[in-house]
Amino acid sequence: MPRRPTRSHAGSEPGARGIYVEVLVRAEFDELWRLTQDPALHPRWDLRFSSIVPQSSLPGGGRRFSYTRSLGMHTIEGTGVSLGERSNADGGATSALRFDTDDRWSPLRAGRGYWRYVPTPEGVRFITRYDYEPGFGPTADRVIRPFVRWMTAWSFDRLRIWAETGVEPERWPVTSVIMFWRRDRPSARRCRMTPPPRGVFAHQPASLADLEEP
Q: Is 130 helix (H, G, I), strand (E, B) or coil?
């Protein structure tokens, strides 16, 4: 598939309006790694995916995969490549990702990003930074992008609950957002969504630049 520039707004630099989400997970590092790196477990907590299916290994490490996102009357299909690394000097880890789809109904087209796992005395800071090419153009993306950011943050908090308490994500369907009387429900507000001053891709892992196109 030919490379297409990843832009979040016409006339802006790639990543200028990228999405940043961070949550503190008070759980064992290995458990968080397992829940996020297993393709069978990932869609269970992440609203952005309905399924993730590994396809093949990459020569330099990592893997190819296909993904779907059901919209009810239509299912978006796409492909991606990812590479997880647990050899960071600070004891943390990164997972780089590129994805793409030619589906005309997808609001997210070609994109790239990464996860960072940062150990702290309180737990693991789980961070994502990513950007994408808007499928419906920059004007529609002004409405879609905040919703995608919310989906990411809400999913991160649902993951946090799973890792910390063992309560499986299916216990909290997206309709639980209206259960205001349940303080233990997932909430996007528990996540930080303001990127650092240097921008979303200021500290991207080298593996992101090295990943081939999906």
A: strand
